Amino acid sequence: MNKRQFLALLKLGLIQSNPQITQRFRAKGKYGPALIKSLVLQNTLFPLLLVVVYGGIFLSQDLYRYPGQFNGLFLVLIGISLSQGITLIYNTFFDNNDFDHYKTLPLSIDMVIFSKSFITIFTIIVYLLPCFIAFLNYGLNAGTNIVLTLLLSLLFWLFLIILLFSLALLLLFGLSLIPAFKQKLKQIAKTMMVITSLFILLAIMLNTYQTASLSAKPYFFIQPFLNVLKQPFSKLSLLSLGIILAVIVILVLLTRIKIYPLLTQNDLNQATKQTKKALTNSTNAKHIFIRYQMRLIGESSLLFQIFSMTFIMPIVLSFSMVNLIALFNNLDQYFGLFLLLGVLITSLVVTPNSLPAILVSLERQNFPFLFTTPLSKKMYLNLKLKFILAVQLGANAVLLLFICFIAKLNLLSALCFLIGGLWFTIPTCMHYLFKDYRFPFFEWSDYLQLVTRGQSNGKLFLMMIVKWIVAIILVVALVLTSSIFGTFWPNLLVSIAVIVFLSGYSLAKVQQWRTIR
Question: Transmembrane region positions (predicted)?
Answer without folding.
Answer: 34-60, 72-93, 113-136, 156-181, 193-212, 232-254, 302-328, 334-362, 383-406, 412-434, 460-482, 488-508
